[in-house]
Design brief:
Elements lengths: L3 H18 L8 H42 L3 H30 L11 H6 L7 H12 L3 H7 L2 H17 L5 H22 L2 H14 L3 H6 L1 H27 L3 H18 L6 H11 L4 H14 L2 H17 L6 H17 L7 H11 L7 H37 L3 H5 L12
Helix pairs in contact: 1-9, 1-12, 2-7, 2-8, 2-9, 2-14, 3-11, 3-15, 3-16, 3-18, 9-12, 11-15, 11-18, 12-13, 12-18, 13-14, 13-18, 14-18, 15-16, 15-17, 15-18, 16-17, 17-18
């Protein structure tokens, strides 16, 4: 029997091919209706299983990761490298989007009138940057039990960070709690292994329904914008991120893609970087050989704030809308789009079409009509697949890069004098 990642790849390809061919059946076909019903159930069960373990996995992995990093005096170095990597790659992604959009000008030949009905029937929630910032700060600090129960990832991450630091500051007195968290994390990862056995079937069902339900007429109308987003996102995924990976680790893209394939295909199928966290952690630790302490910190945090694909998409979408309404954005206005998209994408939840939640703020930052988001909604689910995969890829590349940088730092004389040793210094060699 083929290995699991090979099964997932075959299932993804079959889902896309069969989804495309189902369009040959009539809209009133009972076979088509039954296939949609069955694929919907299978796909939803798979995603729900991932979401079931997502919150406890994120919570325990961050608590254990932070506690162990603090105990080995690595926390500050990991924080610095991780945040620097996240901000840098998101900035590079938006530069790619803005440059390509200025060259090819998607939407310049279209008339906004053809979307008048969609814009008329859509009510955009007005959200100023100040309101967004205040709302974002309030979302950081919530009752941890309510956040855990409701699946609010950001406050779970914040509480886990505090708890991990507190466990180390408490010393041996709280060692039994840390041991319990480690055992619970191992237990959750065992459950992830069980869920992964259903991954080929779940991914087949999700991609089958996604491809089969696309509106081909609309895709043709805004095809230029779709091609631009796919091309720039793939450029970031296949050129920018692999170059960064090779620059810092000397690892080839093929080595990375072989190890990351399960997580990337799952992210593509589910369009949720948060739901993919269990599989991402599994790939990073098992296939890419990143130390658990670092993976348990970088991956969940990245699923919350590292959104290369989302930042790229929001920057490109702002210029697309500007071309539709006939507005030429100046360099200063594009810099505003750059900064706003950076903040907005970091605050977007890691769930399907999360970019739409913050897209309004990006449009408003340069005076574009917020109602134009209605134009993007019908194609957003399709574009969300590729940008989510790149979001997850950024988290995985970041884990490998940070692990290598921290490992290199441990070889410094002052670190050796302090007796600081990693769990697996040669993990990414």
């Amino acid at each position: 029997m083929p290995r699991l990642n090979t099964q997932i790849l075959i299932a993804a390809l079959l889902g896309i091919l069969l989804g495309a061919s189902i369009g040959l059946l009539g809209d009133d076909s009972l076979t088509k209706e039954y296939l949609f019903y069955g694929s919907g159930i299978v796909g939803n069960v798979f995603v729900d299983l991932l979401k079931m373990v997502m919150i406890p996995l994120i919570f325990t992995s961050i608590v254990v990761g932070v506690a162990n990093l603090q105990a080995h005096h690595q926390a500050r170095r990991v924080w610095q490298y991780t945040l620097l990597f996240f901000v840098s790659t998101m900035a590079l992604a938006m530069v790619v989007a803005l440059v390509a959009s200025n060259i090819f000008k998607p939407g310049a030949g279209l008339h906004l009138a053809m979307f008048a009905d969609a814009m008329h029937n859509f009510q955009a929630k007005q959200l100023t940057p100040a309101d967004f910032f205040a709302q974002f700060l309030r979302s950081l600090f919530q009752n941890p039990f309510a956040a855990l129960a409701q699946g609010n990832i950001l406050p779970v991450v914040v509480f886990a960070l505090f708890l991990g630091v507190a466990l180390v500051m408490g010393g041996a007195r709280y060692q039994h709690i840390l041991n319990m968290m480690q055992e619970f994390l191992d237990l959750i990862m065992r459950m992830v292994g069980w869920i992964m056995r259903l991954a080929p079937l779940g991914i087949f069902a999700l991609l089958f329904k996604l491809v089969a339900t696309q509106n081909t007429e609309l895709l043709t109308t805004v095809g230029g914008f779709i091609v631009l987003v796919f091309a720039t996102t793939l450029f970031h995924a296949m050129v920018v991120l692999p170059f960064i990976l090779y620059l810092f680790t000397k690892k080839s893209p093929l080595w990375f893609w072989r190890g990351a394939r399960e997580a990337l295909i799952t992210a593509f199928a589910t369009s949720s970087s948060s739901a993919t966290v269990p599989i991402t952690l599994r790939c990073v630790e098992t296939n890419l050989q990143v130390r658990k302490n670092i993976a348990g910190f970088v991956v969940p945090l990245g699923a919350t704030i590292n959104m290369d694909g989302t930042a790229l998409y929001e920057a490109a979408a702002a210029l697309f809308v500007a071309n539709l309404v006939g507005i030429e954005l100046s360099l200063a206005q594009q810099l505003i789009v750059f900064c706003t998209a950076m903040i907005a994408s970091m605050g977007a939840p890691g769930v399907p079409s999360a970019g739409m939640v913050t897209m309004v703020m990006v449009l408003q930052s340069v005076g574009l009509p917020a109602e134009a988001i209605a134009i993007l909604l019908p194609i957003d689910r399709l574009l969300d697949t590729i940008r989510t995969a790149v979001n997850v890829q950024g988290d995985m590349v970041g884990s490998v890069v940070v692990d290598r940088l921290v490992s290199n730092g441990l070889q410094e004389p002052d670190s050796q004098a302090n007796g600081v040793q990693g769990n697996n210094p040669d993990a990414t060699s």
